[in-house]
């Protein structure tokens, strides 16, 4: 999908897999559905979500999706 993205403001990066997951979250899929699509467990999806929220100092997945649009990782 996309190479690792360096976030200048947060000095953090999200992986290609994390970009895939945030993209699918923005499309309305839940963790179980995302896991099935990516051939990983629901637990692994939740771990990626939690890690992204923590790395970016956000409070929840909703803020993660908003952040991804602001950073132009996602677009309409």
Helix-strand layout with pairing:
Layout: E1 5-7, E2 12-14, H1 16-26, H2 31-38, H3 42-55, H4 61-70
Antiparallel strand pairs: 1-2
In the CATH hierarchy, the third-tier topology is known as Arc Repressor Mutant, subunit A
| Terminal Cα span | 16 Å
The stretches of 5 or more residues where confidence is low (pLDDT under 50) are 1-11
Q: If helices are DSSP runs of H or I spanning 4 or more residues, what is the number of helices?
A: 4
The oligomeric state of the chains shown is single chain
Shape: globular
What letter string, H or E per element, gives the SSE order?
EEHHHH
Supply the CATH architecture: Orthogonal Bundle
The CATH first-level class comes to Mainly Alpha
Domain HTH luxR-type: 7-72
Pfam families: GerE
Keywords: DNA-binding, Transcription, Transcription regulation
InterPro entries: Sig_transdc_resp-reg_C-effctor, Tscrpt_reg_LuxR_C, WH-like_DNA-bd_sf
Can you walk me through this structure?
This protein is mainly alpha-helical and 76 residues long. The chain has one domain: Winged helix-like DNA-binding domain superfamily/Winged helix DNA-binding domain (Arc Repressor Mutant, subunit A, Orthogonal Bundle). It contains four helices and two strands. The protein has helices spanning 16-26, 31-38, 42-55, 61-70, and strands at 5-7, 12-14. Strands 1-2 form a two-stranded antiparallel sheet. β1 and β2 (12-14) form a beta hairpin. α1 (16-26) packs across α3, α1 (16-26) packs across α4 and α2 (31-38) crosses α3 (42-55). It is globular, with a radius of gyration of 11 Å. Mean pLDDT is 87; it is low at 1-11.
């Amino acid at each position: 999908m996309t190479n690792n993205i360096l976030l200048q403001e947060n000095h953090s990066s999200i992986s290609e897999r994390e970009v895939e997951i945030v993209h699918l979250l923005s499309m309305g899929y839940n963790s179980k559905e995302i896991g099935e699509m990516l051939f990983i467990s629901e637990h692994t999806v939740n771990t990626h979500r939690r890690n992204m929220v923590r790395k970016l100092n956000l409070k929840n997945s909703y803020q993660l999706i908003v952040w991804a649009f602001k950073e132009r990782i996602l677009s309409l």
